[in-house]
Specification:
Homodimer. The chain has 380 residues and is α+β, with helices and mostly antiparallel strands. Helix content is 31%, strand content 27%. It has 3 domains: 11-95, Rossmann fold; 124-184, Dna Ligase, domain 1, CATH 3.30.1490.20; 188-378, ATP-grasp fold, B domain (D-amino Acid Aminotransferase, Chain A, domain 1).
Length: 380
């Protein structure tokens, strides 16, 4: 295994040029690295903050090889990279996280099976490969379920809630008549996430859990640290650490968790990359998740995960840009303790993440109140 550190001045390649790639690239530049990215979108968010941007489909292994040959290490900001491309990259540069991690998380059925095999707690679920199987599975799980495509889908896309097995045919059609995971609906008390950084040398750092609030299955706001009991925080942290170790992640792993009304803590989903729910680390922590990602994949000492002040973030969706008058930037920029983060996207669409606001406070409650007031001032 190549555990040589990639020191500042080296070149980092990023598979994906969305907002996460953009923010990773900016953090890498602060540390003195050169950065390259590959993305199918010629106007991707990272294009104007990297040294070189390759415009190519993720399935074009030869273009990914070009990126890898010119990089000292390659990482990613999106899961939907074909295995053939990942393996082509690994022929020429260390790939962190590795293809074995993506093999597990890219498919919800495989991810659920991996969690079950390793004894990690999750809600009742089954995979369905046909309409008839979907109907019978939904019935066996109590009727009220969430149906999710095995591959693809994010920010609420690729999901269909059903109230009974009678809605199975509609769900099957809406989701493209392809394999799905059927998950029993749960009585949730809270949604949490934990971010783990792990370097090739085996050093691990775990951020305190974030408390997340969703609207229409898209993250609306997130609070760090989350307002949760210390015992729950400790359990969530240990679960996430154990999963990162079992997966042998090199880089970041975010574990999304459900806290049930009965106190159970269950795994919802894994993401081996920076995560929307930890954008607040840029203003809350000594080391942001983006700098930590760079440190981890370059095998540098990991940074402190200490929270120096509570913070909250709220997402800014394209809907705001489509309203008459658009976003009121000047209003929010005048508010103390609030920062505006835009992703450089040219085209606003309903539901598209265009940026976020962050706010700090002397307490988590103050940070949350401030971020909600900032969003209102923005016109949302």
């Amino acid at each position: 295994m190549n555990t040589r550190a990639v020191l500042p001045g080296g070149t980092i390649g990023i598979l994906g040029g969305g907002q996460l790639g953009r923010m990773m690239a900016l953090a890498a530049r602060t540390l003195g690295y050169q950065v390259q990215a590959l993305d199918p979108d010629p106007a991707c968010s990272a294009r104007f903050v990297v040294d070189q941007c390759y415009t190519a489909d993720f399935g074009l292994a030869d273009e990914a090889r070009r990126l890898a040959r010119a990089s000292d290490v390659v990482t990613l900001e999106i899961e939907k990279i074909p295995q053939a491309t990942l393996k082509a990259v690994a022929e020429h540069a260390p790939l962190r996280p590795g293809a074995h991690v993506l093999e597990v998380v890219q498919n919800r059925g495989r991810q659920r099976a991996w969690l079950a095999k390793h004894g990690f707690p999750q809600g009742p679920w089954k995979q369905a490969d046909s309409e008839a199987e979907l109907a019978s599975t939904a019935e066996s799980l109590g009727g009220r379920c969430f149906v999710k495509v095995c591959e693809g889908g994010y920010d609420g896309r690729g999901q269909f809630p059903v109230k009974s097995s009678a809605e199975a045919p509609q769900a099957w059609r809406e989701l493209g008549e392809r394999p799905v995971v059927v998950e029993a609906a749960l009585e949730l008390k809270a949604e949490l996430s934990v971010l783990v950084a792990r370097s090739p040398r085996g050093e691990v750092a775990v951020y305190p859990p974030a408390y997340n609030h969703h609207e229409e299955r898209i993250l609306d706001w997130s609070l760090l640290p989350g307002q949760i009991p210390p015992e729950v925080s400790a359990r969530a942290t240990e679960l996430a650490r154990a999963m990162a170790t079992a997966l042998e992640v090199e880089g970041l792993l975010v574990v999304e968790l459900f806290l049930l009304e009965n106190g159970q803590l269950l795994v919802n989903e894994l993401a081996p990359r920076p995560h929307n729910s930890f954008h607040a680390t840029e203003v809350a922590c000594l080391t942001s998740q983006f700098e930590q990602a760079v440190r981890a994949v370059c095998n540098l000492p990991l940074g402190s995960v200490e929270i120096v002040r509570p913070a909250a973030i709220v997402n800014l969706l394209g809907d705001l840009w489509l309203r008459e008058g658009g976003p009121r930037f000047e209003s929010v920029l005048a508010m103390p303790g609030v920062r505006l983060h835009l992703y450089g996207k040219r085209e606003a669409r309903k539901g598209r993440k265009m940026g976020h606001l962050s706010a700090v406070g002397s307490t988590p409650e103050e940070a949350l109140a401030r971020i909600k007031a900032a969003r209102e001032a923005m016109g949302a």
